[in-house]
Amino acid sequence: xxxxxxxxxxxxxxxxxxxxxxxxxxxxxxxxxxxxxxxxxxxxxxxxxxxxxxxxxxxxxxxxxxxxxxxxxxxxxxxxxxxxxxxxxxxxxxxxxxxxxxxxxxxxxxxxxxxxxxxxxxxxxxxxxxxxxxxxxxxxxxxxxxxxxxxxxxxxxxxxxxxxxxxxxxxxxxxxxxxxxxx
Length: 183
Fold this sequence. Notes:
The protein is of the alpha+beta class and 183 residues long. The protein has four helices and 14 strands. Helix 1 packs across helix 4. The longest helix has 19 residues, at 164-182.
């Protein structure tokens, strides 16, 4: 086990907590920037804990996108192929985005169940220095400056899972700290 956890917590593999899928792949001639169809978010749309909609986002015809990769509330998105310093850059989807997906170089981490607390907890853990170091350790260098995070290896990551009530307390504390930082 990576580190000691409280007795009422459990170590669980990520694959037992969620699914991980990549977004849509497309040919250059299939995309446009005319705001018609399904918006395709890329790694540049993902900031730490925040998703940014940009004026230069790409769009793809609806029939080219599987409904299963449209973004849903509590999904977590993170670049699957990125520079080393951007590994661990993640955002949580706050509400269903029925006209939005991500590109093929981005992971959609979709927790089983619909717990807002668990989704927020998972985002916080996956953005922690411990999880980021693990993700860096399972990357493969691709070309000059990009690193691929291996999906299968990521699925085997161990996540310390607290009881639901504790997840709620953690969420409230994090929300309180972030609100003070922003003030």
